[in-house]
Design brief:
mainly beta; 4 domains; 2% helix; LptD
């Protein structure tokens, strides 16, 4: 028979456990682990019953208004979102004590538990369960506890317990502790005498372990970081995370470098309604592998939003010595750093104008010439609304003080530019004439002529047609887009002008349509040239996907180019290289892109590049690339990610200098993934800046679902090296 009893309303939960021994919540996708069914939901609580009322059903029961009521057979007790089931149970009034035995199951919003016995005081929210198997809903973890004690409404103690996010019957890893205390009010748990086991083999002992019960940030030690390379030896870091406030934190990281000594690092992050940024500092007081001591690195980055239209940005990096990244870096990018920037920039804007002020200088690491410092650079842009006749006008004024160079000329530069253009267009054609006037004034500190001025006008006409047709019975649309661009800039003598920020642009397809072949403002190239090009595209009208794109273009010069950079000769020839670009899908899994520079006079390819990217539904990835410039370089790269079976994946990349027959960098790694843990191992061999010495680094990462990462960030390395890696 069924007996429904709800004699009064209770405050609090029947049994409110919400433990989660998770130190870090993983942000990556995981395979799904089997979820055991702990509690049956066969009994439905009446929908009109008040939430705090106690609802009871059983096959047989003896209920008393005062004293102990007993229930037998399929006992069900529920309150709000909590359910208790047992073979036998008793309920004592007015003390509010419930006891259960025989196949006891309990569920709540936070967890599900199966145990041998339960004894709980509903009024005081205290009690205990024996031999409990539990599952945490929020952290997707489960385990076993010899004894679960609810000491207060906000404090739970687990005695002789284990925790894992793996299946209960075969846990690949587990965290075992003598006691685990869960403070639900502080959302924090602490474990004492904890042992981490992999496949039931102890690998790490922690006398004290603190962790958050939710994904909220909590202070405490993070997992150690382990890596190794030949120049520094084994590197072991023990980061401590300090949650100072909801909007700022501090991470302190002592690192033991096997061959160098103890390194100390810190990172402070902050976020306010108007400010956000990070400040990091690393110090190696005594370097046992070098004659340099007090070696440091700092990085400061701050963004301040002054108001809706104004902002201030600070960025500064620096190191103690030129060899810092060579000795202490562990990648080709790190050892290839040649300068570090320091800049402070203010920006503001109005409806039709913008203004910026910049302070900038550099620390040079490769012994080369340092770029000039800009102290300051002031830039004002004006873009009024378009006129009713379609005329676009704009103006720009820049003042820069170039200083700090001990080998090059310092001075100031004032540059004023005005531009006007108008576009005449239909759906099938357009013509856009433009005219630009630029005037520049120089005041130099150390030169024979301290005052230099230059005024240069430029004119251009950009015109194009657009044709479209359906192919394959309308399944695809093909376009044909011829384009002609003409620009004229008269010659102005500029050899007396120093080069503060100008350099020659590398020729590319987009550069075919640029008015100036130099960057910066110190060189304005004379030009009398015409660019002719044509592009075609094949698109799917169903989803807009571009299946194929190809372009070909060339510049035709009507005069020799006289303006040059220092120590360069004027450019001659009546045409540029013929540039060809193409990209498209070979099939839905494979995409190829290529660029070629054809010398039509010599009938040779001066430069070229081809890249192939393959990725299928099985997450197999292959990237192949080759680039060449005649008498300059030949390079090739290969990267791949290939699942071997359900759990194992091989990953690797190779960057090779073909011209000099040497590898620049080689990375080879393997990844194992199950539903509750991952491990990645990678080895990297790379060339140091002296172009002779090589270094080796080994990265090991263990990622436990619900506990976080142990080791170095191997995933970041593989993602940077293998395009498409997941």
């Amino acid at each position: 028979m069924g007996i429904n009893i709800h004699p009064y309303f209770l405050r609090g939960a029947l049994l409110g456990l919400a433990c989660s021994p998770s130190a870090l919540f993983a942000q990556t996708e995981w395979m799904s682990c089997p979820v055991p069914a702990v509690v049956s939901a066969a009994v439905q609580r009446p929908p009109n019953l008040p939430a705090q009322a106690v609802y009871i059903e059983a096959d047989a029961a003896l209920f008393r208004g005062q004293g102990v009521s007993t229930m037998n057979g399929n006992v069900h007790i529920s309150q709000a979102n909590k359910q208790l089931q047992a073979d036998e149970a008793s309920y004592e009034q007015p003390a509010g004590i419930v006891s259960g035995s025989g196949n006891v199951s309990f569920s709540s919003d936070n967890m599900q538990v199966s145990s041998r016995t339960l004894h709980y005081n509903l009024l005081q929210n205290t009690g205990e369960m024996q031999d409990a198997e539990y599952r945490l809903n929020q952290a997707s973890g489960q385990g076993f506890s010899k004894r679960v004690v609810q000491e207060s409404p906000t404090l739970t103690r687990l005695e002789t317990s284990s925790y894992s996010t793996c299946p209960v019957d075969k846990p690949d890893w587990s965290l075992n502790a003598s006691t685990i205390d869960l403070d639900h009010q502080q959302e924090r748990g602490t474990a004492r005498h904890a042992t981490l086991k992999i496949r039931n083999v102890p690998v790490l002992y922690l006398p004290y372990f603190s962790f958050p019960l939710t994904d909220a940030r909590k202070s405490g030690f993070l997992w150690p970081i382990l890596s190794t390379n030949e120049r520094s030896g084994v590197q072991l870091s023990a980061p401590y995370y300090w949650n100072l406030a909801p909007n700022y934190d501090l991470t302190l990281t002592p690192t033991l470098l096997g061959r160098r000594g103890l390194q100390l690092g810190g990172e402070f992050r902050y976020l306010t309604p108007k400010n956000q940024g990070v400040a990091a500092y690393t110090l190696l007081p005594n370097d046992n592998a070098s004659d340099k001591n007090n070696r440091f690195y700092f990085n400061v980055h701050n963004d301040t939003r002054i108001n809706a239209l104004s902002s201030l940005q600070l960025k500064a990096e620096g190191v103690s010595d030129d060899q810092y990244f060579v000795d202490l870096g562990n990648s080709l990018e790190a050892t290839s750093v040649v300068n570090l920037e320091r800049r402070l920039e203010y920006r503001t804007a109005g409806n039709n104008w913008s203004f910026s002020s910049l302070l900038q200088n550099y620390q040079v690491l490769d012994g080369g010439t340092a770029p000039h410092a800009r102290l300051p650079q002031l830039l004002l842009r004006y873009n009024p609304p378009q006129k009713g006749n379609g005329l676009n006008v704009s103006a720009e004024t820049e003042y820069t003080n170039f200083t700090g160079s001990k080998t090059e000329t310092n001075g100031t530069r004032l540059d004023v530019m005005a531009r006007a253009s108008k576009k005449f267009a239909t759906q099938a054609a357009y013509v856009k004439p433009s005219i630009t006037v630029r005037h520049t004034e120089y005041a130099l500190d150390d030169a024979h002529s301290t005052k230099i001025s230059r005024s240069v006008p430029s004119a251009s006409v950009d015109t194009g047609l657009f044709f479209e047709r359906e192919i394959k019975d309308g399944r695809y649309i093909q376009t044909l887009e011829p384009r002609v661009f003409y620009t004229y800039t008269p010659y102005r003598e500029q050899s007396a002008i120093p080069v503060f920020d100008s350099s020659a642009r590398s020729l590319s397809y987009n550069q075919l349509f640029a008015e100036n072949r130099f960057t910066g403002k110190d060189r304005i190239a004379d030009a009398n040239r015409l660019t002719a090009s044509v592009s075609t595209r094949i698109q799917s009208p169903k989803d807009g996907r571009e299946l194929f794109r190809a372009s070909i273009g060339q510049m035709y010069h009507f005069d020799d180019r006289k303006v040059t950079l220092p120590d360069e000769t004027p450019l001659q020839g009546d045409r540029s290289e013929l540039i060809l670009e193409a990209a498209g899908e070979i099939n839905p899994r494979t995409r190829i892109s290529t660029t070629a520079y054809w010398d039509s006079e010599e009938k040779t390819v001066n430069a070229g590049e081809v890249r192939v990217h393959y990725k299928d539904d099985k997450k197999r990835v292959l990237n192949v690339g080759y680039a060449e410039r005649k008498q300059a370089f030949k390079s090739a790269n290969l990267s791949f990610s290939a699942p071997i079976n359900e759990h194992w994946k091989a990953v690797g990349s190779l960057e090779r200098d073909v011209q000099n027959d040497r590898n620049l960098e080689t990375v080879i790694g393997a990844e194992y993934e199950s539903c509750c843990w991952k491990t990645r191992v990678a080895s990297r061999n790379y060339l140091l800046p002296d172009n002779t010495t090589r270094d080796n680094a080994v990265f090991i990462e263990l990622e436990l679902k619900g506990l976080g990462n142990f080791g170095s960030s191997t995933r970041d390395l593989l993602e940077n090296r293998v395009y498409g890696y997941e």
